[in-house]
Design brief:
By secondary structure, the chain is α/β, with parallel strands linked by helices. The chain has helices spanning 2-15, 65-78, 93-96, 114-146, 154-173, 244-255, 273-294, 299-305, 320-334, and strands at residues 29-33, 36-39, 47-52, 55-59, 83-87, 107-111, 183-185, 188-193, 196-201, 213-216, 221-229, 261-266, 270-271. The longest helix has 33 residues, at 114-146.
């Protein structure tokens, strides 16, 4: 059992929010604004796609090649127009590993740090996972299955389902193939396709040091990537450039803009209030950490004293102590002035 826990932990770290499933769930899509659609993706980051008379613009690629193919199938069910552009909001695997499922002739747009981040944070770990970790896990499952005499027992059936799911997943992720972006930018990138205007903005590091906001100017709609985890706990990874203070500023600035609808990286599509909800979560947690630190408590004490039930969020609960540690570390390194939002 210990081996299974370790391997599953590695899976979470390496593939970042990819969800395994015994059966492929249908991807549901809906129209957010005229010709602008959202897919709340159960296998990875949420997708947006804009249909124009000159082609389709897609935001994010899904978590695996099969997930990417599913996304393309949804788009083809809506329009016969070709996919022209694929915009990648940041470098995490659940947003970019589906690229191999997209047509080869698309133009990929990303922040200038994305390719470097993929090479630094994703490639080596993914290769190790495919070549060593997951095969070892599958062998371990087979050994456990072989040690059970009753092939109709609940334990055996659960192991068999686990094996089949991971074997299918293994075959899928072996096809992950990163493609260098065709267009990169540093701060802003604006482009026009047919009658649509799209603005890509790098607002500084928040969730990562390559996160962007995609603004659909004709619709008052934005795709935030993982700058918003709607109604669930966010992932904060220091090595990937997380900056909670700037993240808060980004959200507060966006909330002041003329935005109607927000497509988050994870969770349900919502009105602009979800920008404030994400910001308020960080602020409320920060104030609690500051008060306890000022009262003389160390980090481990603070983790024990802040109640997760104080926050009306559900999902990614294992990230809550990580959130506390990252914010505590920023407070220590940047000082009290950091909290004067």
């Amino acid at each position: 059992m210990k081996v299974r826990i370790i391997l599953l932990s590695l899976l979470i770290i390496i593939l970042l929010f990819t969800k395994l499933s015994n059966a492929q769930e249908d991807l549901n899509y809906f129209e957010v604004s005229e010709n602008l659609y959202a897919i709340e993706n159960p296998h990875g980051g949420n997708i947006a796609f804009l249909v124009t008379r000159k082609g389709v613009v897609v935001i994010d690629a899904g978590a695996t090649p099969n997930n990417g193919k599913e996304i393309v199938s949804v788009i083809k069910s809506v329009t016969k127009k070709p996919i022209k552009y694929l915009i990648l909001t940041h470098s995490h695997g659940d947003h970019i590993n589906g690229v191999a499922g997209f047509p080869n002739d698309i133009k990929i747009i990303a922040h200038q740090n994305l390719a470097k981040n993929n090479a630094s944070f994703n490639t080596e770990k993914l290769n190790n996972y495919i070549n060593n970790v997951l095969p070892g896990y599958l062998v371990n499952l087979k050994l456990q299955m072989g040690s059970i005499e009753n092939k109709e027992s609940e334990e055996y059936i659960a192991l068999e389902q686990d094996y089949n799911t991971n074997q299918e997943y293994y075959e899928d992720i072996k096809n992950i193939e990163f493609r260098e972006p065709d267009i990169t930018f540093e701060d802003y990138y604006r482009f026009k396709i047919a009658d649509e205007r799209i603005m890509l903005e790098f607002p500084g590091p928040g969730h990562t040091n390559d996160n962007m906001v995609v603004k659909f100017s004709n619709h008052n709609v934005i795709h935030t990537g993982d700058l918003v985890f709607n109604e669930c706990f966010p992932y904060l990874i220091v090595d990937h450039g997380v900056d909670v203070y700037n993240w808060i500023k980004i959200l507060d600035d966006l909330y002041e803009e003329n935005i109607t609808t927000v497509i988050p990286g994870h969770g349900e599509v919502g009105r602009k209030i979800i920008l404030k909800d994400q910001s308020d979560y960080f602020k409320n947690l920060s104030y609690q950490i500051e008060a306890l630190k000022n009262a003389g408590y160390n980090l481990e004490d603070i983790k024990k004293r802040i109640d997760i039930k104080d926050f009306d969020l559900e999902g990614n609960e294992n990230q809550f102590p990580v959130n506390i540690e990252v914010i505590y570390t920023e407070l220590v390194s940047k000082g009290v002035e950091w909290w004067k939002f």
